[in-house]
Amino acid sequence: MLLEIIKDGIYPIHFNERNEEIDSPKYRLEQLVQTRGTFYGAPTLFLNLGLCNLKCIKREAICNNCFKKEVQKVQLEPQVISNIIRNNIGNKKHLVITGGEPLLQTTALLELFDLIKDLNLVITLETNGTIYNEEVYSKVDYISIFPVLTAFSPTNEKIKKVRSELKEKMALVSNESIKKHEQKRINIRALQIFIDNCVLDTNKAFTFNVYVLSVSDITELKNDFLDKLKNWVPEDINIIYYGLKSNIEIVNRCVEEGFNFSTITQYEQ
Question: Does domain 3-268 have CATH number 3.20.20.70?
Fold first, then answer.
């Protein structure tokens, strides 16, 4: 079973699967250390998987992981990825599995986990929370959940604005795919299982990392997600402001609710 990943989606690396030194790009800060969540600042190896079950449009740009472009993705055997991890992990203790939606590739992901279990890495799973898999859950240490709000849904108006980008990436967005996005983006049952299992298992932890553009997005988060979930506390919620201009209203609302606040910095734009 192969894992589909973003091209150059294992980073930072300086050696290939044969432990041969390679020419590495100049990595950005967020490709070297974690820039959100519990392990903020930790030197980390990232594995960026290439499949997603949603079609997000962030601000006025499409999400490359959501809109498939073949030339940007490669398929690798778990053994090859395991070798690359071993040859590049160095003194790092953390591995982040991100995407896309990693839980679309559970079989190959579980094979990879078995191949690297002797490294005793702290493994973070970044997920949109629409899928739950018990076997994958048992293999990871920290679940970073990114619920998708309507601010990032692919509306017809947004699609018109990014049409040239979609054409360049040969991506198709139909009314049916928009409908499927809305049907899939909220799975309260899966989210509740993640929360309940982390509460019961002291060796596991979770955080809701939620991108917002306005105060109304926080209201939507409460109404559509949090009010329907149990066993969470405000400290479990990290609001990430994705706007271009400062917004003190969002900060004040986070203070009022007891949520953590962070912002997308310039290097992540």
Answer: yes
